[in-house]
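Section 5.1 Outputs to date
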Amino acid sequence: MAAEQFDDFDSFPNLVSMFLARAQHRGDAPFLWAKHDGEWQSVSWSETARRVAGLAKALRKMGLEPGDRVMLVSENRPEWCIADLGIMAAGCVTVPTYTTNTVRDHQHIMNNSAARAVIVSTAKLAKTVMPAALKSSECEFVIEMEPMPAMQTGQLSVHNWADMVNGTDADVRATEAAMGSITRDNLACIIYTSGTGGAPRGVMQHHGAILHNADGAAAVLREDFGLDEEEVFLSFLPLSHAYEHSGGQFLPIGVGAQIYYAEGLEKLASNIEETRPTLMVVVPRLFEVLRARMIKAVEKQGKMPNYLLDKALTIGERDYNGRNRLRDAPMRVILSRTIKPKIQARFGGRLKAMVSGGAPLNPDIGIFFQSLGITILQGYGQTESGPVISCNRPSFGIKMDTVGPPLKNTEVKIAGDGEILVRGPLVMKGYWRNRAETDRVIIDGWLHTGDIGHIDEKGRIAITDRKKDLIVNDKGDNIAPQKIEGMLTLQPEILQAMVSGDKRPYIVGLIVPDPEWTVEWCRAQDMKCDFAALQDNPQFRSAVRAAVDRVNADVSVTEKIRQFEFADEPFSIENGEMTPSMKIRRHVIRERYQDRVKGMYKD
């Protein structure tokens, strides 16, 4: 059955029922792909269904009951999807966690969710999971996807994955029958928000919220791009993040697509060329990295490639702004036969769209890729909303400084103070065991997103900034930091930036220089590349200052960066200064560099 016929999302009571229906239609067609010994190998839809049913049966046999929480700690791989569906098929609740979590992070989530079991993929990840499980008063079972070396297990009952996923067609039929008792209102998962501030909170996503998201996203793709039975998704964002969980797992399940699991960010470019995806969900940071690499690669190829790139970008920007020129027609033909096919080949050659979410996309980045024939749709959402609220689409006119109209069956309005409010089946049930926070963000059924924005004449949502991140200077002017930071990171000299200025007379910035640019600069100066020493080098500071000045030339007086200092190292997930979806954690960075920031106001 062709994927475009899968428009029956409303008929399913839960996510597992939707998966089993798709598996019945797809049968022995390939579904989940991973690389083993250098070769892509698949697990069919029917085999996945048997493994899901087998796991559900084994979890119930262990003594797990409906509503029990099961923590899932794994990198993206077929087993992740099977585990997630198997947990839900047992009537339990998945608690996905990041592979970058520390023992302390795992312990907080395990204790807060009162998880009775944990599924862990590798011995490396078990090193942080097992200590947390041993200290937990609720955790009883550990399920190992891969054989682990002997380690202290204490009171924990340890089980082997292979023994638990050995299901049969009879188990699949029994699971189908059992799913009738699980409704859209039942809890599907608790996703702990990494948060740009404070301790992670458990967002309670019900089956109906994720089904709503998958249905709405499929409708966008079906109407604007068409869907067929050959759709291929490449999954590389963490599945423990709500965006990939809904958009990179349940959306492809809903449209009957194949899912390839990337080997990691370092191999993503080659994986794209190998798997030739038709659709991908990504975060803006990936586009920033790809843009920088593409520009550098073209620069090394000589005058003609650089000329063609410049022409493609110039014409693309004119087209985006509605200033099409007839005299550009000959150059369009040349570009369509030279640079554009080469760029598209790097993305596999059959990509329909890449959907950007998780953080704001700089409009210039979107126009850059669109000029080269790569369609980027910026979406918007939060973990608390399933997570997708809206998405750009060609039929509404793609405007890069908006995040498109809301998904179907989604209400959006703007509060008196500019805050974006959302209502509909996508809104979470609340924060796990946190009634006070739930009541603060959900009022009369409306989710208060904490984002500031407006709705344009075509019904597209435009986001100004995070309500709590808005800088209000000492004169009362509101300044959106993400806009300035986005402009800074577009400069070749700057990798990352965070600006400050709340209750202050002017804006200042913390800057992480681009490592590759820094190495090239040092080479040109015949100087040893010692970043600690470079921080105090007047010539180096002047070179970075030139990048800051370029940004200052394009912003208002209140947005200009008067002073800047260097951060000691890049903001990263490992040092706690970025979330897994690549948003900076402002409170962590402010605390670390508070003296440096204060020092920029001494004059």
